[in-house]
Amino acid sequence: MMFTADQTLFPTPDLVVEVLSTSTEARDRGVKFDDYQAHGIEEYWIIDPENETLEQYHLIDEEYKLILKAPNIDVSSFTVAGFQIPIRAIFDDTENLKAIQNL
Known about the structure:
Residues 9-69 form the Putative restriction endonuclease domain. It comes from Dyadobacter endophyticus. This is Putative restriction endonuclease domain-containing protein. By secondary structure, this protein is α+β, with helices and mostly antiparallel strands. The protein has a single domain (10-101), classed as tt1808, chain A (Alpha-Beta Complex), CATH 3.90.1570.10. The protein has 5 helices and 6 strands. It has helices at residues 5-9, 25-29, 31-38, 88-91, 93-101, and strands at 15-19, 43-48, 53-60, 63-70, 74-76, 84-86. A hairpin with a 2-residue loop joins strand 3 (53-60) and strand 4 (63-70). It is globular and about 45 Å long. The protein starts with a helix and ends with a helix.
């Protein structure tokens, strides 16, 4: 991959997390998904607060593969070494506090 002058100032992130809303869902699953994939962002999480689920995509052979879509298990990042969080902690204040205390 060739870097432009702008990318050396603002490099491509390894992980992007989007939180869906009614007004952004089509964009997050459409143009942003395609753009992140095309720019080689290795990991993309889509958090759906309405259904309380997390989708984890991993870039494999230049295409996103859905690794998990779940409401209630631990998710481990491919790009942030050692980062693991219970998905429930994203949606539940008590579980969030427990997860923070375990960091």
